[in-house]
Amino acid sequence: MRAATETTDPALPSPDVLAERLLPWFDAHNRTELPWRRPGTTAWGVLVSEIMSQQTQVARVAPVWEAWMARWPEPADLAAAPTADVLREWGRMGYPRRALRLQECARIIAEEHGGTVPADPAELEKLPGIGNYTAAAVAVFHYGGRHAVVDTNVRRVVARLGGRSDAGTATTRADLAAAAALLPEDTATAARVSLALMELGALVCTARKTECGTCPVTAECGFSGQELPEGPSRKRQRYKGTNRHVRGEVMALLRDADGPVERARIDAVWTDRRMVDEAVAQLIADGLIGTDEQGRFELPSR
Questions:
Q1: Is the DNA repair keyword given for this protein (predicted)?
Q2: What are 216-227's pLDDT values in tens digits?
Q3: What are the boundaries of each domain within the chain?
Q4: 35-142: CATH homologous superfamily?
Q5: Is the Cβ–Cβ distance between 261 and 299 less than 8 Å?
Q6: Which of 173, 179, 190 is nearest to 153 (CA)?
Q7: Catalytic residue positions?
Q8: 273-280: long-range contacts at Cβ-Cβ below 8 A with a sequence spacing of 24 or more?
Q9: CA distances (Å), 270 to each of 88, 125, 141, 266, 288, in order?
């Protein structure tokens, strides 16, 4: 029986028809080269990959993930690591607060869950920095649960199946219900459909174009064959010259330093002193850098 929150949209294909069309395509096109999709990847490995991939392209994530898992294969390993080493290993993936949250997740998993990543999305969402998507992803992609895993790609695919050109900018309850309604009753099949929907949005039904001619569900798609409407161009956020850029330069200096760094070297990373002051204050507030007894700057030891 379907959960009460799952509603059937008459514009969407039935779960069984969707699975029949989609899963053979997925078996042929699944990006098995991604290291976290290798057989034997642990729930911890999946969790690490999802947090790293939140705001970073998977091509950049893959080598960092490999090095990370070789160094800290279990939550307890990361929990015990010096935070400075964690931030150095994170490197230039951006948004390094994710590394701090991941280490805090590791400590909680090690101390409160016996080193085992929870399988229940509700328990996963209690961990620092873990939202609905990441919790569902771990529960489905590792544990094989039957849950709607809804990211930008899945929202777009579901919207187009229903005849719309795109979804909104944030995941809503309606998005979750629509995705859940597409899952077959069989739990193992539902888990594969969840990943296949995401893969379809990443490889075929993308934001900038629709490859309807190669889409395995084009016959069941309400938007099939239609042109994407003209709209504002989706330009990538500017990085050069921004506060994020300055913060990144300060972090890079401290990651590469052999020891604590004098303020003069911090000031030299950027010509605008006001921007440096702002970046340093933010990094201290975020717990990403600290100072020693002599006022020199360094990465946090814990």
A1: yes
A2: 999 999 999 998
A3: 15-29+150-185+195-220, 35-142, 243-293
A4: Hypothetical protein; domain 2 (1.10.340.30)
A5: no
A6: 179
A7: 50
A8: 275/243, 275/246, 276/246, 276/250, 278/243, 278/246, 279/243, 279/246, 279/247, 279/250, 280/250
A9: 21, 39, 43, 8, 19
